[in-house]
Amino acid sequence: MTKTFKPISPKKIQDNPFVMLDNDWMLITAGTKHSYNMMTAAWGGMGILWKKPVAYIFIRPTRYTYQFTEKHDYFTLTFFEEKYREILSICGTKSGRDFNKMKEVNLTPAETKKGNIYFQEARLVMECRKLYKDDIREPNFLSKEPLKNYPLKDYHRMYIGEIEECLAEI
Q1: Fewer CB within 10 Å, N or C, the chain?
Q2: 74: CATH
Q3: Segment 6-23, tens digit of pLDDT
Q4: pTM (two decimals)
Q5: Which domain holds residue 58?
């Protein structure tokens, strides 16, 4: 059964972003219908930056999804009902580099009007155009050592994307 989605303004989203990210999780997807990958994330946020609705995400360079997010101008964020928790767990613990996630999780990929991938099983989709990226490290804030002395061995790339379209399940 194919779901029907309608475009909505990001300002019409009724969900609590703290629950959406920390409790519900999301799939970050980048690429095209011919080559894409997705990963589960529970870090991120939403807000207003430069008078634009934005979402921000964090991806380690060691993650397979990183190369897709680097290569493409867009990424999507998809949010699901609780019954998809096991699928989100698989997508967050197994790498698409070594494992065919799509075959295992049985999600139905779909394309936005701009050709970005989301999943028919979602309840909410955000299509984001990258505006900014930067690398962040997790320093020990209790240390008196200057941040410049922290090794860059474990870091995340932060992407800020303008939410250009939201799709909500009808």
Answers
A1: N
A2: 2.30.110.10
A3: 999 999 999 999 999 889
A4: 0.87
A5: 5-169
